């Protein structure tokens, strides 16, 4: 129950009923749910945020996947993410000093 947060679609309801020893098909459960105006929760698909170009090459790995530094300002790492809002996407970028693990302005 914890994984589903008490939300059941026809497939999950059918599996639960079968686990209880009730012989029933998914189409029958779907029909019964439809007649009772019950719907499973539909999750939104996450939008694709990156589209690779045909023949595009990845950027060179200048630090050879070693994200450690022996002194401040020797290596900075960055990341960007977006936050979907009603008014469109907001973009958040962070630059981090690999030595001190602090955010650089």
TrEMBL record:
Region described as Disordered: spans on this chain: 42-64
GO process annotations (BP): DNA integration
InterPro entries listed in its UniProt record: HTH-like_dom, Integrase_cat-core, RNaseH-like_sf, RNaseH_sf, Transposase_IS3/IS150/IS904
GO molecular function: nucleic acid binding
Superkingdom per UniProt: Bacteria
Integrase catalytic domain span: 68-105
Record-given protein name: Transposase InsO family protein
Gene source species: Salinibacter ruber
């Amino acid at each position: 129950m914890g994984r589903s947060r008490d939300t059941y679609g026809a497939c999950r309801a059918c599996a639960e009923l079968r686990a209880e020893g009730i012989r029933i098909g998914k189409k029958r459960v779907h029909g019964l749910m439809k007649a009772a105006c019950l719907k499973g929760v539909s999750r939104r698909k996450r939008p694709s945020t990156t589209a690779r170009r045909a023949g595009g090459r990845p950027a060179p790995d200048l630090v050879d996947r070693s994200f450690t530094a022996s002194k401040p300002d020797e290596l900075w790492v960055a990341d960007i993410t977006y936050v979907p809002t009603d008014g469109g996407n907001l973009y958040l970028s962070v630059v981090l000093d690999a030595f001190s693990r602090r955010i650089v302005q």
